[in-house]
Amino acid sequence: MKPAVFTYVAPHSREEALEAARRFGSDGKILAGGQSLVPLMAMRLARPATIIDLNRIPDLAYIKAARGGLAIGAMTRQRTAETHRLVLERLPLLADALRWVGHAQIRSRGTIGGSLAHADPSAELPAVAAVLGGRFVVVSTRGERIIDTAQFFTGYLTTAIQPHEMLVEVQLPAPPAGAGWAFQEIARRHGDFAIAGVAVVLRLDADRRCADARLAFTGVGPGPVRATNAEAYLKGKRLSAAVVAEACRMAQAALDPDGDIHASAAYRTHVAGVLAARALRQAAERAKGQA
Amino acid sequence: MKRAKKPAKPTTRRRSTRRATSRQMRPVARTTVRVRINGAEYERTVDVRKTLADFIREDIGLTGTHLGCEHGVCGACTILLGDQPVRSCLMFAVQAEGAEITTVEALGTPEALNPLQQAFMDHHALQCGFCTAGFLMSATVLLRENPHPTDAQVREYLSGHLCRCTGYQNIVEAVLAAAGPPSRAADRRREK
Predict the structure, then answer these.
(1) Residue range of the domain that includes B87
(2) In this predicted model, what pLDDT tens digit does every residue of A91-137 receive, in sequence order?
């Protein structure tokens, strides 16, 4: 349970980090909070030749208000974000979801960017990015590109980030004023990997009909899964018990999770549906009817 | 004897900057680490693959920090990095350069336990004691940030620690006892 031999470099600036990423390419591995990478190295599932440690770069950790939402530096600690005034005011959904990320002792070190770049299929933050329509700022020595959530998560533990690139910021738009939100998850113990989880954002019109609903699941696919069929179905409807049940049935039908030691595929699908119903009801309670 | 200062030539300056950068940017397998642990300064040369947990135990000789799983699940190796609880098996020693670290040795002594340690003893919150140092470090931060936590808050905060002896009940009771009853001022705030 000791990591294999590697060499280590700790750039002090963004430019140095990008230079290192360019120089070491796929032999290099960027180390952010280390709460996923170091266990993989301890178990020798990852054996990077060179570690590029971002922890000495001061200007990659920040939370800024940006165009109605937040711009969060990749090296922002999860625990910092969870308790940050701007997050609590503008994106309570993110604060709520962060409480499900590992434990306090993990979040004190774990970073927002690290979790997103690691792209664990049962991670909470990818679902939050998916439901909010987050954008990812990825840079290299050649320049910057901004990637939408749908293009960012490309598969199991895989993102659109290339070996010479680095995630520096995630931009999370705040839901429209008056929108309701919810994050629901079931894990075997608090802090364990999710069996299933779901993030919901919805808007009600003055008639309390659903003007717009978004659902993104975690733990039931290779990455975050948007339930676009259920979203389309909900539009214009009052969230009666029957409508919620039908939306959840539609969402479940579109899921195709893998079974594993923690839960069978059928159980994950079942749990996802139950959580979606809870989250829709909770989000509707929080939503203010708007003209 | 003082060496006469040469006027700095721009070319020299450029080269020295480049050298400084490349020195920093040359990957190393072994390096010197300076840290402050429980108020004392230490400097050791270590392999970069060495975890902070192994560094604390093997290089510094502070064996109160225990290693259970060595991959971030059990919480036994929790220490304080600055004022936050951190799993020392998920950090490399080299990353602690310049950091302030607190381990269980800083809490109390066998002769003079601190109030939290005393509460653990009084409430039978340990049996074999292997996990205890980690629980103590996390509970220390919990009570600092939230002096009168509820039962549920204690359970959530300590959920990152495994104990195979106690069944947790006595650990939760010990932490609540160490917190003591909430002050009347806090009660009044809560009622409002």
Answers:
(1) 30-106
(2) 999 999 999 999 999 999 999 999 999 999 999 999 999 999 999 99
Strands A69-73 and A63-66: antiparallel
Written as six digits, the tokens of A35 are 């709460």
CB contact at 8 A, A179 and A203: yes
**Token pair of B51 as six digits:** 């975890």
The reported pTM is: 0.91
Matching residue, tokens 């600055």: B82
- Residue A6 and residue B69: Cβ atoms within 8 Å? no
| B152 interfacial to chain A (CB closer than 8 Å) | no
* Interface ipTM: 0.92
| Nearest-by-CA chain A residue for B160 | A103
Whether B85 sits inside 8 A of A104 (CB atoms) is yes
Which among B25, B31, B49 has CB closest to A16?
B25
Domain parsing of chain A, residue ranges: 7-56, 58-172, 180-290
Smallest CA–CA separation between A112 and chain B, in Å?
A: 16
Nearest to A5 among B49, B72, B92 (CB): B49
State the fold for domain A58-172.
3.30.465
